[in-house]
Design a protein that fits this description.
The chain contains six helices and nine strands, in the order E-E-E-E-E-E-H-H-E-H-E-H-E-H-H. The chain has helices at 84-96, 101-117, 130-140, 161-175, 196-209, 221-231; strands at 6-16, 24-33, 36-41, 50-53, 58-59, 63-68, 120-127, 143-150, 182-188.
Amino acid sequence: MSALESILIKNLLAVVTQDEQRRILKNVDIRIEGSEIVAVGKDLPSTADVVIDGRGKVAIPGLINSHTHIPMTLFRGVADDMDLMTWLKEKIWPMEAHLTAEEVAAGAALGILESLRTGTTTFADMYFFEDSIAEEAIKLNIRAVLAESYIGFGSPVVRDGWKAFEYAKEFVKRWKNKSDLIVPSLGPHAPYSVEPDLLRASAEAARELEVPLQIHLAEDYSEIAQVREKYGTTPI
């Protein structure tokens, strides 16, 4: 289907809007031209390149996945019965250490296709080889807020925390204003895995680069206990 085609969705049961009144419109049509919704109303003209029967269906805004590691579709089902820290240290981090950019791209493509199929049109991701994820997002036409993540001991891309941080900043510079679909960000992993000085540097860099910052925070009780023991406070 060409991106320039007109699409008419007829006889929808309802359209859930995001206007100021959060109206739900009943028994209406939607007309799309190119990438824009140009009309929502009753009995719109029936001429369009593509006409879809919307009877019995509800149209909602695209869903937003506010936190994901989308290539981890590759690890689906791995040690699901473990607690978080055991799962990370004994299974996931050792496996991630061997990942390649090509494998990350394949996992990202699968995750993006599953997202689009189930109504997600934007996702926020912090992972490794994030350039590969950005390229797959553009190829599959989905919006994404992306961060090249880093841990105190580094990442599969750069084996040192501070060097990984510098690499993450370069990712931001490469992708800032490069595509309407991609918003680059910074992604320090978590308070228990990234030292305070590196967290402070990350926050300062996000302000200087004028980009968002993503981080795991208070994921489970063991994280709270670790942070309290190391720093005498809670993660939040």
